[in-house]
Sequence to fold (124 residues):
Amino acid sequence: MPYIDQAFYNDVYKGTPMDAETFTMLEERASDVVDMITNYRLVRVDLSHKPELIRNNVKKAVAAQIEFMYSEGGELSVHGGSPSSVSVGGFIYTKGSGVKVVSEMARSFLRPTGLLYMGVEVRC
Fold:
């Protein structure tokens, strides 16, 4: 389920410019990433019934994730991108220690919403 449109990304978030086809593809992947890190708490939930802080921060988190994925090479960024270690004969090149899939900015937008909480919820 898309959380934002390109107008929000361009006019409100003021993200890195990209064509409509790229935006649409990355928006779907970014929404999937936000759903995963929020433990699918927003699936089948009408965001318009949530407080403004949650609505705005979820949208900004998706926008930040889109921008992050775009800067990391597009859709391939969520699949791990390029290898972190390559060897040819006796030559070995190692890049970093791991692959980052989720934007730290997206996590920062989601932190105050309570959607990152992974503990047990009790309802009475």
Q: What stands out?
A: The longest strand covers residues 85-88. Strands lie at 85-88, 91-94.
